[in-house]
Amino acid sequence: MASSVVSALFGSYDLRNAKQWRDEDILHREQEIQWLNDDVVRAHEWRNADIERYLRKEKLENEHLVCAARADQLATISEQCTLLCGFTVASMVNLNFPEELSRFVLALYAVSASIVCVSLLLCTLLSSMLLLAVTRYASSQLELDIKRMDLSELEIHAPFTVWWLKKCDVEHRTAMKLMLIGVTLFFQYLGTLAWVQFIHYRAASITISSLSGIGFLFWQVRVASRWRYLLTPPASSSTFKSTSYLRDCNGYSSVRSSIYSGRLPSTIPFTKKFWGPMQSPATNAEPLKSVSSSSRHKNKAVCKASVYEELKSPNHDRI
């Protein structure tokens, strides 16, 4: 009788210990599942941060390339206008006017030379100011504008293009028109210069004037008429959409697609599947619940009911 009572006591004690150990084991497994969920969420957030950092870096490099191309264009225009203006001024200074020169030819020469010098000089000054503005924007404001953009806007909007159309496009078209005026009158200036410099050599004057006329016709027919659309203003303001920091330009042809195709890591799928990893893991897999490291032992794990049933089943210990 006493032995059976002792056996029953020890059996109940062992059963109670086994139940307590099993409950503790289940809680520990739940915490392991929670830690795994937290690690997955944290890795997902880190990957999203790396992708965002990579995209913003590529966008900044692309915008710097556009700024550099625009700066080279302005520098080239300024150099060409300076060259023509310097040639005109040097000819005016070093030219000796004969006494028998016609007043009409002299007046035509003076007017054409003055207009050429003034228009080309103004074009040079405008191009220089625009070059300074582009350099200042690229060095101080461009990176800030890219940081303010949403991740979904990086492939659509172009901060430098929007800034250029808003701040510098009118001045740039004005400079181009002044350059066209100066180049057009430069042919007339050459033709008039021939009758001033070679007044005693009619054949030379006629030859130079004829070549100047041919050059003027070629300029108007083959060059100026073909590229005159560059002087037209951009699309209407309805194509611009306002955002929180600037007015964005739709239809911007981004060149970053080719950059991504060569530089984007193979682990990051580009095209329509690119934004899939940027979504929450809950949309692609089982629901996960992120918790901080300080509250790991307070929150329950996020797991399906079938997993809990498997953990609580007696057959689980036999695995």
UniProtKB/TrEMBL annotation:
Acetylation in keyword set: no
Superkingdom classification of source: Eukaryota
Coiled-coil annotated spans: none
Main location as per UniProt: membrane
Alphabetized InterPro entries for the sequence: CRAC_channel, Orai_sf
TM ranges: 106-134, 175-195, 201-219
Subcellular localization(s) per the UniProt record: Membrane
Any one GO cellular component localisation term in the record: membrane
Record's bilayer topology term: Multi-pass membrane protein
Keyword line: Membrane, Transmembrane, Transmembrane helix
Family assignment from sequence similarity: Belongs to the Orai family.
Protein name: Uncharacterized protein
Organism: Albugo candida
